[in-house]
Amino acid sequence: MRYAYSVTSALLLGGAAISLATGYPAGAQVAQNDDAHMARVVPRAGAPESFADLTAQLQPAVVNISTRQRIEIPQQGNPFAGTPFEGLFGNRGQQQQQPRFQEGQSLGSGFIISADGYVVTNNHVVSPNGRGTVEEITVTMPDGTEYQAELVGTDPQSDLAVLKINRREPFPFVKFGDSAHARPGDWVVAIGNPFGLGGTVTSGIVSAVYRNTGQGGAYDRYIQTDAAINRGNSGGPLFDMHGQVIGINNAIFSPSGGSVGIGFAIPAEIAAPIVEKLRAGVEIERGYLGVNIQPVTEDLADSLGVERNRGEFIQSVQPGEAADKAGIQPGDIVLKVDGKEVTPEQTLSYLVANIRPGTTVPIELIRDGASKRVNATVGKRPSEEELRQQQFDPDADQQDDIESNDSETIQESLGLQVLPLSPQIARQLGVGAETQGVVVAGVDPNADAARKGLQRGDIILSANNRTVASLEDLESTIRSAQADKREAVLLRVQRRGRPAQFVAVRLR
């Protein structure tokens, strides 16, 4: 029965193929004089009957990448802390506060780009999640040979990373191709390590080029493909029919978690220059205007009387940054940067990020319905951590906090995650830019600080009557209190819409 059904399916598919090839439905009568107006589509010579030869040449350069990570486990505090029973069990409560760790792993794909063993992959394949550290990176060749890899460089913004492996014999390698000439409908082949199964090959076509997924950022600009890409394919190559890498598999759209035929790859024209800089140890600098933007939607375009899908709308301008100095204002619509159109496929973020900091460029915009031109000297884009700090949301889930800015002394002693109080965060919290302090980004629910009511968005102004202008100031006060064998520190805390008040928080 299975064979019978498959033959039936094949016949139905064959009929559909004939219908498409002739340009009109099977069985329809078409006048002979219409033939001259019929579009003739002829497949390009060389369409593959098999990808086997191409795969055999490319697969030796595609590798599996695994990491071993050390992940800190959040600890439960002493349930009797702050009560008469706190010391009932001796030092057990203190022992519970000692950090504990567990081993974690990640798995992905990559490809070798040089005979001396440089490997390209995604940053998220080799970077830890949460409070972990990567202790070991292993690159496994298709024949099962393993090599310990050195992390040469990472670029979180583009999600790219470069590794290095070594041996006496030269490695097989592949080269970047020209993704700028990729077209929807072109054949592509993806090779990677989905679900840890080892080298797996899938084929498909380019579904779209320069696809904007709506996630934002300077590099939300992908090749979309229907070649099956699943978990573990991250960092693997997307090849054209010349055997060149035109994309680096990065993400999928999937309600189920598996491939549904919508995969995204970082275009080679974006990846190759970044990879070269990471390989050479060159700092990657990107341009920055200092604006918050949104696309010109249909409703927004109608309200402003402008064309949809043309330009981007300026929601806000950061004081002192390049846009502010150039006279760009909230409500402006930026149409061109340095003569290049701002479109959904070529966003303002992308255009500006690819301008060298310090370069002065003309910017064309619309303000109050009138065209205007300004010159902006592009600044240097802050790090991803600094950008997230500028967008601090006191009502967001504290699990999204920026771990790299946490102080171990403050975290362990007070149970608080804190961030420097930048002018941007100060505005979001409703205090003046001149306010000095540190902002609470997260509170351990088992700490005395939580019992005393401290919460995300609170500003610590002083500790033990010493002004707190930085994380280091708060750390210094904590250490002094510990040296004096004090069991608590007195914090002066400012909360939005309320007067500052003093709160005594026990050290742990």
From TrEMBL:
Residues 82-103, 377-408 are annotated as: Disordered. The active site is at H124, D159, S234. Residues 464-491 form a coiled coil. It comes from Erythrobacter mangrovi. PANTHER family: PERIPLASMIC SERINE ENDOPROTEASE DEGP-LIKE-RELATED, SERINE PROTEASE FAMILY S1C HTRA-RELATED. Keywords: Coiled coil, Hydrolase, Periplasm, Protease, Repeat, Serine protease, Signal, Stress response. The keyword RNA-binding does not apply. Residues 394-406 have a biased composition (Acidic residues). Substrate binds at H124, D159, G232, N233, S234. This is Probable periplasmic serine endoprotease DegP-like.
